[in-house]
Protein 1
Amino acid sequence: MRILIANLIAKIARTASRLTKSGGGTTLPGLLAEKIAPNIITKLAGRLPQGTIIITGTNGKTTTAKMLAAILEASGLKVIYNSSGSNLSRGIASFLSLNSNLLGTKVNADIGIFEVDEATMPEITGKISPRLIIVTNLFRDQLDRYGELNKTAEIIGSAIDKSPQSTVLLNGDDPLVADLKKFSHKIRYFGIDEPLVSKSTGAIDSKICLHCGHELDYEYRYFGHLGRYQCPNCGYKKPDLDYKFTKLDLKVDESTALFKNNSEKEDFTIKTKLPGLYNLYNALAACAIASELGIKTFIIQTALEQVSAAFGRMETIAIGKKRLALLLVKNPTGFTQVIETLTYDKKPKNLFLILNDKFADGTDISWIWDAELEMINRLTKNVTVSGLRAEDMLLRLKYADFDLKQILLEKNIALALAAALEKTNDNEVLYVLPTYTAMLELRKILFNRGLVKGLVE
């Protein structure tokens, strides 16, 4: 009876949220449903015949989930996943509840894919027995919530420890993630196997060996602390990879790589319309999961070629003869990777940077000082800054040696958008780099103007 009432209230809440335009109906339904039936996630997840897959880590969760969903749907499976990136318990409860019948006896899907906030992992694995867990990477992100990286790794490790039945896929290029092997015996590693050095290696978030405290040596780094590493003291090193990309080709509008599966003799080329090394990591993660599930090669290839950008991750919106490209930024490594991707071509860029410091963004915005904005300071036509902490972003741009005459500060996002579009010529792109709550606010503005179909994907 509790499940029935919870599902009914959840469906009413979603309808009310959308009718009143007060939200996308992705979190409130689950929040109410869990209050009425605290075990609703466990009950409904248990109705999925092919089980659940959990994706966690700092960067790449949403895009990896979208890529994997496309592959599994192309293979004939009916998939449920939290496509809007609502990755706390309430978001997962919402998607399960809204995709089940009133009695909760059936969920309208074969398999569930849930991206899960790192700090929420122990709670979710206490409610769900996932078939597979994948950890994408660990970078500094919202230090006011997570604390230092070792603490985040401990949190994820405790969640893995609660799931002895799960196969665990770990990014072997990340020494923090690779070390999570100690929490499970069902381990597979994925990563890049090419002596590629990114144009910007950036700051290293984790360079100390977790086993002996000695500084790690890197033969090469892809970005941050991801790369080929070894401890010269105790010998801890990058593990052998079960799934890997080689022969990378990075362009401003697409990326390709050769995928190698150690259990298969044949290698195959993967192509994605999403640019950037970080998106190739997302594609690799999706390929690794799909391969673990036994999906055929040609299905993986075909599906990935068709995947468009996830919610706010290089999502492109037409505004008259102009285009607006949304690229979510939330930590220094992700910010740097977005900036580097924009430098793949040398055309002058129109930039719109929106910095908020609400809880979902992280109240500590000092991370902007570790992002390498200097890479693009000579490739901008004009820059607009907005948001609650617009002055901080302006100061960061000043110290990144931007031409201050090119920069407009307008704290009101709606007014700033109008000004930024005014300065963008027809057939040009306005690149918008917002933090999470700023992105939601911007999408609400665009939704109210009829430029996007919904507040969330």
Protein 2
Amino acid sequence: MKKYDFDQVIDRRGTGSLKWDEAPEGVIPLWVADMDFPTAPSVREAISERAAHGIFGYSILPDAWADAYIGWWRDRHHIDYAREELIFCTGVVPAISSAVRKLTTPAENILIQTPVYNIFYNSILNNGRRVLESPLIYEDGEYAIDWEDLERKLADPQTSLMILCNPHNPIGKIWDKETLARIGELAARHGVTVLSDEIHCDLCDPGREYVPFFAASETCRQIGVTCIAPTKCFNLAGIQTAAVAVKDRFLRHKMWRALNTDEVAEPNAFAVSAAIAAFGQGGEWLDELRGYLAENKAFVRSYLKDRCPTLTVVPSEATYLLWLDCSALTGDSRKLAGYLTEKHGVFLSDGAQYGEAGRSFLRLNTACPRKTLEMGLARLAEGLLAYPGDESLLPR
């Protein structure tokens, strides 16, 4: 018997919600990676208790904060982080931007495997560095690493940092231990630091488990900076709470200095309580959520297979995001996404923002009550079937 109600529809409009208030009135938003579920009861209770105290001065990090991370990663992901290896940060994206500024110099290359989370581009380009894409190989609806291309670009003397997405957003792929170890060996051989964004790690499908970059090999531990947080899996992005894990003490000192210099290393009044409650008491809620999300993803696959057979839903092992191959309809996902929003009232992310390799894809967020998802899918299918196509598919 299920304990938690993920079918409840909660009106989020007018609450300052990026997901809903950025969408036009009447449009169903299935875009940004944000869930339409209240967070775990234990987290809400911890925040309420902290709010009831009424004083919100400067906050410190108690031992319980590190204990929560250590226990969660030990019990869930079979890796032992040491207390001194963990640094508080207000978010994964601030940590990535700080790492870019501290671990690289202007005009150096930062390697990413595309299609990939679009904000990686912002962190690189806004800080005067160069994006170096190593596109993933896409064949028969599946993605794989182009090892020859990856090594060639890691070997470029101008490449100093690689940002790894583990599990990978938007394709939902879990990188296995052998793959991560091989990435680590190649990066170490060419003097490249690897920053692993693992924010989606606790949203693997039931029965599936991610491998932390740190756990792949000793080499990975020595050259790696890992970003972890409860914010994605417990829907706490607005609380701004995360951690950066670094084993090598020299690299850790650089990251500690970077985060403090950028003033993103101090918690707000709710950040610590929320993280401790999530990792300390939220496991049961999360496991039930993962089951619900897996059912949502299966529902999407079945629905679109029946109604839009020209569409390919890329297999996904993790995240609540689905990557939709629309190449039979378009080579211009921006145009298609705009058409779906304007004409059919459903808002998906256009794949082009995740790199050139995503220009014929859409990203769909399944993290909402089934009723909302079904209404959104009905509009999506209607729009795809009515889409007139575009000039991007014409022979050149």
Protein 3
Amino acid sequence: MRNMTEEEWRAFVLEGTRTGKVAVVRPDGRPHVTPVWITLDGDDLAFTTYHKGVKARALRENPHIAICVEDDDPPFSFVSIEGEATLVDDPAESRRIATIVGGRYMGAGRAEEFGARNGVPGEYVVRVAIKKVVAQADLADW
């Protein structure tokens, strides 16, 4: 096992179609974890979510968020990110981020289609200001 450098963990998070497992705390205190399509945008992690969804409602009350990205294949690796989320209600920004993630997860040929579908009023960008990262590689290699 070894710790990843910042360059390594950023590349790991963006590799292939790995999803981010996002954890938020609902207003009643219960946890909520869901997979989301993510990207890194400058210093922030970003994804989109619907304004009436559980994630958006929870983050309006408590902006603390955790995201885990993992490699399920041996020798196993993961990146765990903790941060503070800001909800951005801007359809143009939603379209931009949704186009980026659409290209990543659905292929370049469908990026614009996905961006148009999600760049609409009511679709927020969640920008996560990264506060802490734990990034470990080769967990099964001792």
